[in-house]
Write a structure and sequence with these properties.
Elements lengths: L2 E2 L8 E11 L5 E11 L5 E4 L4 E7 L2 E2 L3 E2 L3 E4 L9 E9 L9 E5 L2 E5 L18 E9 L4 E4 L2 E6 L2 E11 L5 E4 L1 E9 L5 E9 L7 H18 L7 E7 L6 E2 L4 E5 L12 H16 L8 E2 L5 H19 L2 H20 L11 E2 L8 H18 L1 H15 L3 E2 L1 H12 L8 H4 L5 E8 L3 E9 L14 E8 L5 E9 L3 E7 L5 E4 L8 E4 L5 H8 L3 H18 L4 H11 L6 H8 L4 H10 L6 H19 L3 H6 L13 H15 L5 H11 L3 H13 L4 H10 L4 H14 L2 H8 L9 H14 L1 H4 L5 H16 L1 H7 L11 H15 L6 H12 L1
Parallel strand pairs: 2-12, 18-19, 19-21, 22-24, 25-31
Antiparallel strand pairs: 1-23, 2-3, 3-9, 4-8, 5-6, 5-9, 7-8, 10-11, 11-16, 12-15, 13-16, 14-15, 17-18, 20-21, 25-26, 26-29, 27-28, 27-30
Bound molecules: arginine and zinc ion.
């Protein structure tokens, strides 16, 4: 059934307290629940429940026999004491047989939970909706040495432990962990002087890979105090690393559970990118304590209320810890690759969706990353100071509540006196706006005319103009910036007049001030001018990007671009990390998007060949400057994931990628692989060798060296999936270390192939599509959430050549007509086919 935002009603019954007792056993765990209900809107009692064996139930101690169905149970209002009652029940569940990794499951001998969004209903019967908040006390009985739940431990003995969380929370924030775990501990003193114990729990042997996560946690705690005035609110904060996990991590109150990929790192096993990922996910989950947990969502349509805001917060944190311009470039690159792609196809949906079948299908780039952009725009429009005032009001007014996007915007209206009704369209209208700019210089005034168009998306044929904040700067012929400002394009057509005596070069949408496609018909030479002189680093990078894209689309001249990139590379005043980004060529997915946006048919083979050619042109242009530039990035001293070293490595490895295109270059790549003393350099060299079909020995060596270290073996699968043939990938699927029970491994092979190997995925005989469909069907029977997520690899199918579209249509139909298909995957396939 479709759930609609418009149908929201308050809960019939609310909950004061929850007492849970778990008697853990792999295939027959017993959960005893004692729940204190109080009247809400009134009516029958509905409790969600899935895959539960109900052993007994009582109301105020008197046994009851409720009507039990596949989705839950109900008790008629007439059988319920009007003023409230105590519900008790015992359910039996099967953690070992739980391959969905939602609810309580076993991962390599360790019990753990994932309850967001609707996993708690697989543990016991409960009103499993975020606007029902309660205080939890939990008793765990098991022989396992470590027994954890939310909040503070209030008692323990041999074979049991009890936990109490004083903060009311929705069921999706419940967590339980039990296993033979080891901890790394530390402490943090809050600015008001309270000492918080910190613990990271891992499997024995992994303790020495937790230091970076712990350090990131302490920096996150400090940052939230300094920048948002938010202190931690319990005496204990715990993180657990799990190998089998559907998502990246989960912000359960006081007991965050993480995919081990975002906790464990050492220089030998983790890349610079992995370290940065750990820092940002640790921050993200920690920041949820205020934006998500203390203030939560009324219903799942409001998901971006916590996710968009928390992503925005973690982006700002990373910008403060590292280089702000480089972080912005990375984020926009990610936004364009994933969110613009989503917005352009059959899966497009608003930041606040208005209906869904399965909410897990809406943990998307739009809700997360576009949601963060919307908050960035809001801050841009009201100003940093007003943003801070509004946020303080938000925390003050809504602490302890389950809120809506309306509540959020109301806070900004009250704090600033602005009318944000038009701004709200950013939450309601799907699709990436196109902003066309025309420029006219009349001798005294430079006039810009902005025309916006929000494309039609599924279910939304007509759109209204939105307020698009455009940060701008005007450059003169010598590259000097003589004027700048903020223009808000808030109607179908708006104009901006800049008084000046000569035609300027306009730098528009600085810092990517709005998530739109900007179409600026620049004069010949303007882009190259901005690549050389723009004072906004983001736009400087983007000018290079646009130059490259022009050549990529038309197979045209690369001279201006090569010249400009060469000058940036040799500018020692520029951050190596920034230079590395200027050096990188748009990926095949991004080129495919630009092709479709220009109204042309996407032929992945043509795109692949063009991109290769453009990179070759650059390598040829830079020729013997490449090696000395690379040598200049040598790093002295021990490995550090912070400071300037990662940027230098990124630049050196980017250059190595171009050197590999020259004669004898692969020998240098092989030497780099042999010499590498950290995972960043090792994986970069391995990737280059494999991309050129010269990775056989290196791959064997890498596999041997890292056997048993699963996060590294994932990389080994991933590289081959991106550059191998279908036959190679089929062989890997038969490899003893391939397992569909660990989402990371499945993604390393299947998602890397479907998203990262366009040539083979789009093979003209349809073998790539068939392989993906086969594995989606296999995965769907085990883990619907992961299968449904992977099906998004088909989301651009309407843009490719007709023969390929027909082949994909056949596979989508085959999946759709499978005898049993999860709600998750059937919703996704339905949307894909309709689009
Ligand atoms: N709230 C978690 C986070 O963003 C992610 C939970 C993912 N759950 C899901 N059903 N996809 O940090
Ligand atoms: Zn989140």
């Amino acid at each position: 059934p479709t759930i609609r935002l418009a149908d929201y009603t308050r809960p019939a019954w609310e909950v004061d307290t929850v007492h849970l007792t778990f008697r853990l056993s792999p295939d027959a765990t017993e959960v005893r629940a004692r729940i204190r209900f109080k009247p809400g809107r009134g009516g029958d009692l509905w409790l969600d429940g899935q895959a539960l064996d109900l052993l007994e139930a009582a109301i105020d101690g008197k046994p009851v026999a409720p009507a039990v169905g596949k989705q839950g149970l109900s008790v008629p209002a007439a059988d319920l004491p009007k003023d409230g009652f105590e519900w008790t029940c015992t359910t039996r569940i099967d953690p070992e047989g739980n391959t969905s990794l939602e609810g309580l499951y076993l991962s390599q001998g360790m019990y753990c939970t994932q309850c967001e969004a609707e996993g708690f209903r697989r543990i016991t019967y409960f009103p499993d909706r975020p606007d029902v908040m309660a205080i939890y006390t939990v008793r765990i009985e098991s022989d396992l040495p470590v027994l954890l739940s939310n909040g503070n431990r209030i008692g323990s003995g041999p074979g049991w432990a009890e936990w109490h969380d004083p903060w009311p929370k929705p069921a999706y924030l419940f967590a339980l962990v039990a296993g033979d775990l080891k901890s790394v501990t530390d402490s943090f003193t809050t600015r008001s002087g309270r000492k918080v114990d910190l613990a990271i729990w891992v499997r024995d042997g992994d303790q020495d890979r937790c230091a970076y996560a712990m350090d990131s946690l302490k920096r996150s705690m400090r940052w939230d105090e300094e920048v948002y005035g938010r202190e931690y609110d319990l005496d204990l904060f715990q993180i657990v690393a799990v190998d089998d996990f559907n998502a990246g991590a989960m912000e359960n109150k006081g007991l965050n559970i993480f995919n081990s990929k975002y906790v464990l790192a050492s220089p030998e096993t983790a890349t610079d990118g992995d370290f940065e990922g750990i820092e940002s996910v640790i921050a993200h989950e920690y920041f949820h304590n205020w934006t998500g947990n203390r203030i939560t969502c009324r219903d799942w349509f409001q998901l971006s209320l916590k996710e968009g805001l928390t992503v925005f917060r973690d982006q700002c944190f990373t910008a403060d810890m590292r280089s702000a311009p480089v972080k912005r470039i990375q984020d926009v690159q990610g936004l364009r690759a994933a969110q613009f792609r989503e917005d352009a196809g059959p899966l497009a949906h608003p930041v606040r969706p208005e209906e869904y079948v399965e909410i897990n299908n809406f943990y998307t780039a739009t809700v997360y990353e576009k949601g963060a952009e919307v908050i960035r725009m809001l801050r841009e429009i009201v100003g940093a100071e007003a943003y801070e005032t509004a946020l303080n009001l938000y925390f003050e007014r809504h602490d302890g509540q389950a809120c809506t996007i309306e509540d959020w915007l109301q806070v900004f209206e009250d704090a600033t006196g602005r009318d944000l009704s038009q701004f709200k369209l950013w939450y309601r209208q799907a699709g990436t706006p196109q902003l066309d700019v025309e420029e006219q210089f009349d001798g005294t005034v430079h006039r810009l005319t902005f025309r916006q168009n929000v494309p039609a998306t599924p279910g939304q044929p007509n759109k209204q103009p939105m307020p698009i904040p455009v940060r701008w700067g005007a450059l003169d012929a010598s590259g000097h910036e003589f004027a700048n400002g903020l223009h808000i394009a808030d109607a179908a057509v708006t104009t901006l007049d800049i008084p000046c005596s000569a035609r300027p070069v306009m730098s528009l949408l600085r810092g990517f001030s709005a998530p739109v496609h900007l179409k600026q018909a620049e004069q010949v030479g303007d882009r190259a001018h901005r690549l050389a002189h723009d004072t906004d680093p983001f736009n400087r990078w983007d000018a290079g990007r646009a130059l490259a894209m022009e050549a990529l689309l038309d197979g045209g001249d690369t001279q201006d671009w090569c010249d400009g990139v060469g000058r940036v590379l040799e500018d020692e005043a520029l951050d190596p990390a920034f230079r590395a980004m200027v050096l990188s060529v748009p990926g095949e997915g991004e080129i495919a998007q630009a092709t479709a946006l220009a109204g042309r048919v996407v032929d992945p083979d043509v795109i692949h060949a063009r991109r290769k050619q453009v990179r070759q042109n650059l390598a040829h242009h830079l020729s013997d400057r490449l090696a000395p530039l690379r040598d200049a990035q040598q790093i002295d001293g021990p490995y550090s994931p912070d400071g300037s070293a990662p940027g230098k490595r990124a630049l050196a490895n980017g250059l190595l990628g171009l050197i590999a295109l020259q004669s004898d270059g692969l020998n240098l790549a092989q030497a780099a692989f042999d010499r590498a003393d950290n995972m960043t350099d090792s994986l970069a060299a391995l990737t280059i060798l494999t991309a050129h079909g010269a990775g056989k020995n290196a791959l064997a060596h890498f596999h041997h060296r890292w056997s048993g270290v699963s996060l590294v073996i994932d990389k080994w699968f991933g590289v081959q999936a991106r550059f191998g043939s279908i036959a190679d990938i089929e062989a890997l699927l038969d490899h003893t270390e391939f397992t569909w029970r660990t989402p990371n491994r499945f993604r390393a092979l299947i998602a890397s192939f479907a998203f990262g190997n366009p040539t083979e995925f789009h093979r003209k005989d349809g073998a790539g599509y068939q392989l993906l469909a086969d594995w989606l069907l296999r995965m769907d029977a085990l883990n619907p959430m992961v299968a449904a997520r992977t099906s998004t690899a088909f989301d651009s199918w309407r843009t490719v050549t007709e023969d390929r579209q027909a082949l994909i249509a056949t596979q989508l139909e085959r999946i759709a007509s499978a005898p049993t298909l999860s709600k998750d995957t059937s919703e996704m396939i339905g949307r894909l086919r309709a689009g």
